[in-house]
Write a structure and sequence with these properties.
The chain has helices at about 15-35, 50-70, 75-100, 120-130, 155-170, 175-195, 210-235, 240-255, 265-290, 295-315, 315-330, 335-370. The chain is mostly helical and about 375 residues long.
């Protein structure tokens, strides 16, 4: 009775979903590079690249339900939390450390607080960032009022942890009917903000402030738990070429220019609601129902899936550098975009190095130390 839990790795692995997560990660990095030159939310290139986060939430909910829904008779909540911490926290720490290492190279007009930030304060923020505890705007050291000023995208991991707690503590017990009602209400909450809100988009969620928290929860609740519901419904779409079709659809959806302009914000809000509520679940359904054929295609999906999380959680300190460089030297997009593309390649290289020489070894050690002493753990986790 006191032996560690053993979970055989006997479930099917969704290679296409891994690949799609990687595609979305690359798109969001490219989006952030172009965002440096955009000026505002109405003139961005790859304008809806930020929707990758909402896609990640939906994909995460689907995979969490797939990996854990049938284990609760043999697993406690603390077992679940340990496994999620082992899966996610090592790269949270690495992202914070990379952000700290590059912090003082980012000083200047773009980030006015950096040059006046003492080292001791930056180190405290680094330590807090490693825990994923959000900082209040009054504790900002960059000037953007981010809850994680050394590594902005960590805000979505903060909400990911909230979703995991809600799933383990409450939602896993929901019947399919109750979960459907909850998802519908969450969709209404999202649509209300998108169509009646002040901006007509879901940009935001990265600050501990009333409006930003509203955005964060609107972005989290529907997609994550719609992913859980999608798995429980088991309605998968089986078509040939699923990975290519889903990848193209995902890129097109996120590359569509802003719709409606400043005079019709609701039009863009309606588009984003359609993407998050309808198109993203359809993409996941097709991806989960597809089958990879061919050694090289499987390897590509495997590589993209493996680097997706490390790339997402470590790339933004490089983006800060890019923003500081462009701002300081007034670099136009035509000249600076080559540097941005080099940044994407470097970011992928850093992600791969972090994965192979840090993340995988650390997770393997933590798994052996805290989860199992024999057997294998499931490999299909978000």
């Amino acid at each position: 009775m006191n032996e560690p839990l053993v979970y055989p790795d006997s479930k099917r692995h969704y290679e296409i979903l891994d690949g799609l997560r990687g595609v979305a990660s690359v798109v969001v990095v490219v989006f952030h590079v172009f965002e440096t030159y955009s000026g505002d939310r109405f003139h961005q290139i790859i304008n809806h690249g930020y929707l990758a986060v909402d896609f990640f939430f939906l994909l995460s909910g689907f995979v969490i339900a797939y990996a854990y829904d049938d284990r609760w008779g043999k697993m406690t909540q603390w077992d679940f939390y340990k496994r999620r911490l082992i899966r996610l926290q090592p790269m949270v720490i690495m992202g914070s450390l990379i952000g700290a290492a590059l912090f003082y190279f980012q000083g200047g007009a773009a980030f006015p607080l950096i040059n006046g930030t003492p080292v001791w304060q930056m180190l405290i923020v680094t330590l807090v960032g490693c825990t994923l505890v959000p900082l209040l705007p009054s504790m900002d050291i960059r000037g953007w009022q981010e809850m994680h000023p050394l590594n902005g995208p960590a805000w979505s991991l903060f909400f990911e942890y909230i979703a995991n707690i809600l799933y383990a503590a409450i939602v896993r017990r929901f019947s399919k009917t109750l979960l459907t009602i909850f998802v519908i209400l969450s969709a209404c909450y999202l649509v209300q903000y998108l169509i009646m809100g002040p901006m007509g988009d879901v940009i935001g969620g990265w600050s501990i402030e009333k409006t930003q928290l509203h955005i964060g929860f609107a972005r989290l609740l529907y997609p994550f738990f719609a992913g859980v519901l999608l798995f429980r419904m088991g309605k998968l779409v089986h078509i040939k070429g699923a990975f290519v079709i889903c990848s193209l659809l995902l890129v097109v959806v996120m590359a569509i220019p802003r719709i409606g302009g400043t005079d019709h914000l609701w039009m863009n809000g309606l588009y984003e609601a359609l993407c998050i509520i309808v198109i993203f679940p359809l993409i996941v359904s097709i991806g989960a129902g597809g089958v990879m054929k061919g050694k090289y295609a499987t390897k590509i999906c495997g590589f993209l899936g493996a680097i997706s999380y490390p790339l997402y959680i470590t790339h933004y300190p490089l983006i800060y550098l890019h923003i500081a460089w462009v701002t300081k030297y007034k670099v136009p997009m035509g000249e600076g975009i080559l540097g941005g593309l080099v940044l994407v390649v470097i970011g992928i290289g850093i992600a791969w190095a972090c994965l192979k020489f840090y993340d995988e070894p650390v997770r393997n050690w933590l798994t052996k130390r805290f989860i199992v002493k024999k057997g294998l753990v499931s490999s299909q986790e978000s």
